[in-house]
Specification:
Radius of gyration: 38 Å
Structural class: alpha+beta
Helix content: 10-25%
Number of helices: 6
Number of strands: 12
Distance between the termini: 57 Å
Oligomer: single chain
Strand content: 15-25%
Amino acid sequence: MSKKSVVVLILIFTLPMIGLNDFPIARNAAAADACSGDIEPISWNETVGRSALVPHHNYYSGYFGFGDYYEDDTNGRDHENDWIIEDYREPTELNPEEDWMYEYWDRDSRLQPLTANYHSTMLVGNDSIGALRVNLSEDYRTTICVTAQALNETSDGYSVDVYLMTTSEYQRYTELYYSSHSQNSFYDEISEALSDISPEWRGIDFTGWRSYRDAHQYESVKEINFALNLDGPESYTPIFGQERWQDFYIIIDTWDNNHDNDALAPGVITAADVTIITTERTFVLPNFTVAIVFLMLMIGMVILPFILNARYMKAGLEASVGENEPGLVPSLEIPPEVNIQHDDKTNLPKNYPEINGIDSD
């Protein structure tokens, strides 16, 4: 194989890694350099939404039994007994969240696509969840920078968890949070038992929750920067129903969830600075280019051995320049042609073989 062919093959296999944004070295360097820009004020519930989960408020604090509430009960049954109501818990000094953050966390107001830079400082209580809801655009590269610190206190072992989730992922996450803080649910015990499930089986775990692309989870950290590009609008269509669009939730987790390597509840109020930087993408490849590139690589790997074998079989069969002139091959019957200039026999060395009819004797 020629040197040019080797160079071409090396470039084919290395250029995709250099160009991909998920390459660790390129991703970290790009994210670190893109945490600053012109910050615009936030229009709450128009460009960015704010929500929270707190231990003293349970969205599923009660549920109705199997009886039909709207039908007349001839037996005089008291429907209030069908509800299981948990005791009200007062917020503590470690819960600075306002009521509207956790009482209406499931609001479905549509947000504008994220095309500007924003910054927000969230106060997240102990054993709580703070989240920013955004609508990421596939036309922009988004860099998210999070810095967390204990408010008015110092702690050597302080750390939090940072997650990025879609709407459907966040709903499963909130269900587990409320279940773990409920007095009437065994859902949390099952999730703890299945916390060590391997990644390839998490998709069928009905108690599990995942971060976006099963990759954007950063646990036991104080500071993290990450960036992502969307291949297209984040949406899905169920078997029955219309297409559902997905928002994104940037989550600051101070709760000891069911993951094995997550941070414990710090016991303090967390002040989290979240900066969102967007950069317009000038050139966006369509999704099918990935399939085409890998298809060409597979075809090339299949054809390359045949090409090398054909070149090997032809090697030596091609005549070189200057070797087309016929000639005799020396043998025992055909003496070699040796031109020796001599005057007489005395000029020949002793024991010299007989050449051209000349006797050395």
